[in-house]
Amino acid sequence: MTRTNDDLRRLAWGSLFAISFTLSPISWWNDAVVNLPIAYLAAQLVAVLDQRLFLFAFVGTYWATNLIGLLGMHISARKLLRQTVQRISLRRFFLISLFYTLVIVALAQFKWIQSSLLTFLTRAVPAT
To answer: What are the structural domain ranges in the chain?
Structure first.
């Protein structure tokens, strides 16, 4: 492989690692800044179809973003290092994700978060 191709390969896998790190539950800030807003927006879109699916979509998307982040980091690190990556503590990731999931469920149960898009649409469109 030529030097340029190797540099491009490392840039591509390094970029995937950075994006995946942003989605993964490794950093303390990613949930508040990245995963929860993505999950909330996805849940808003699903709630347009059926309001009862809001919480399910919120939690499901939140878990999916964490999983995608962990898998992306694992794959890109293996490609970058071309060797076996040290096993990451899945227990820690699970506990962090479980904690945030419980927070999401509690906030939804107390109606501190809800589908504001559906509320806006139902108020904006007059009933016939």
So the answer is: 3-124
